[in-house]
Amino acid sequence: MKRFLETLLRVEGMVAVAAYTVTCGLLLADVFAREILSQAIWGAQKIAVFGAIIAGILGLTIAVGNNAHLRASFADTVLPFAWVDRVGDLVSALLFAGLCWYSVEFVSESISFGDKAEVISIPLWPVQLVFPYAFGTAALRHLIFFLKPALRPGPAGEG
Questions:
Q1: CA angle at residue 122 from 116 to 125, to 5 degrees?
Q2: Which is nearest to 135 in space by CA: 97, 109, 79?
Q3: pTM recorded for the entire structure
Q4: Which residues cross the membrane (predicted)?
Q5: Distances (CA, A) of 130 to 53, 58, 61, 97, 135
Q6: Is residue 156 part of a domain?
Q7: Cα distance between residue 125 and residue 107, in whole Å
Q8: Would 159 be classed as within a structural domain?
């Protein structure tokens, strides 16, 4: 299970880096084309936005996988400390599972309505799939951390 979580985290990190690389590359190329060639790259800005969305939402799963997400500490003094993290993981798993459910509904409605991106006229649902994926894997990670607390990485601390 630990190997699965580490591999998942590594793959998500690579996809996020690739998405940001595409975003930066497209924006730089578009600026170059506009300033030097006096010609914009058609659709570059829209695709760059999609890349930033994908990389950004994958940041959620990366933060959960590294135990580096924001954590409310108000319950530390109310509940026995040994159970605070486990209860938090269970609540987080349930919340992310609910968000996953609603994001699946959102994507399926986008498919049924035939929603397309303005300017480049491509379907939106492939980009939107990152939301159910991110919420679903965040729920799965929190559920695993609830069931097997030893698999949760140590707190990453504050930056």
A1: 65
A2: 97
A3: 0.88
A4: 43-66, 87-104, 124-144
A5: 9, 8, 11, 14, 8
A6: no
A7: 6
A8: no
